[in-house]
Amino acid sequence: MPYTQQALNESRRFGVRPVPTLRPLAWLGRGWQDLRRCALLSLLQGLLLLGGGVIIYRVWGDHFGLLAGAFSGLLLVAPVLATGFYASSRALERGQKPGLHTLVQAFWPGHVQLIKFGLLLGLAGAGWMLCSAALITLMAPGAVHTPTEFLYRVVLAEDSLLFPLWLALGALLAAPVFASSVVAVPLLMDQRLRVLAAVFASWRVVMEHPAPCALWAFLIMALVGLGMATAMLGLVVILPWLGHASWHAYRDLVRQPVEH
Prior knowledge:
It comes from Roseateles rivi. The protein is mainly alpha-helical.
């Protein structure tokens, strides 16, 4: 049997639960509860992720085309970076106390499929970073090295299609990545299955629930944007919050397999 057909059959073991359009608001509520219950561990992970953002800024801060692509590309790999939050929420769900051992087990090398998916998302993020830099370098009316130059020469440039084109290309990449990963990463952490099977399951969730998933994507982008507007400091809280909420999205949307 071809690999794709095997993965498709494997993905069909997982059903899709019906949810109302506004259910993502409930995921945020449950995620906030989990954040409060393991605040120290979650905020520590948030600080580590913020440290990654600071490193990105230090490396590419003088090349805003690369910097903008790097930060937006970081969102593409965020589902894998949030694995520790999924593991903590799962532990709380089971009545356990999450700790550092929970994070170690979540990222344990035995999760080969999760590592593979992380590498694929990393390649997608790197590809978008390079495309972003090339697009801005080739089409901007002048050099873009700072946020101010990006604002005036890309966002506010008169009679220029650069910013709409930049957004459109970003959305063109982000949409399939979001559809592929919205429940795939917590599914890979929670169940042992191949990457393509998890991706098929994630696509089916999005196809059956386009409105809730669209709202969920909007909420993620809005909250991350809010965190970025606070000189990234707000991300220390927002990223753990979204990570815990994403676990509840997975648990709410995916019906676990019924053995025949």
